Amino acid sequence: MSSQKGNTSRTRGQKYQNATAFKNNKYGASVQVKIASAKVHDGVCQHCKDILEWKVKYNKYKPLTQPRKCVKCLQKTVKDAYYIICKPCALSMGVCCKCGKEKDVVIPLHTKQEGEEEEGSGPASEAQKKKRKSSRAEDDEHDGDFDSGSDLDQSDSSEGTLDRQSKVTVPHIASLKI
């Protein structure tokens, strides 16, 4: 046995080895896998970032459903899974959001104002704005005037014999003889 006392060296190699690496999206990526893969782990040290990336890679990452309590301010403001400190507290104290230690943060936290400025500038965001405007304009063209493009109005105007104010009278049910 390999765990027997005094038997520290093994003579053979590993018995079972995987032929292919694990893929968390082998049968098509689910919504949870897509969200976890797209998540940016900001405000954490390199060690914690590696842990979170491993959890995502091997399908062990489980997102939060409700906010957690921050260990510093004791408010329910922690919205990211596996974090123990909320982003404002970590930003003010300069600590890792996951382990709470004063280490070098790999991806720094952004304040809301900086995030809005980054979204507002740049060629990618301008292209997205143009796409939104063009799609809205196309929607307005199709939805704007229902009367102008219908085939019924064209047939009515070409005949000219129908009066728009004339109404068809429907007899009352009691007066019908069955």
TrEMBL record:
Record region (Disordered): 111-178
Alphabetical list of Pfam families matching this protein: DUF2039 (PF10217)
Highest taxon above the source species: Eukaryota
Composition bias, Acidic residues: 138-156
Annotated protein name in UniProt: Chromosome 9 open reading frame 85
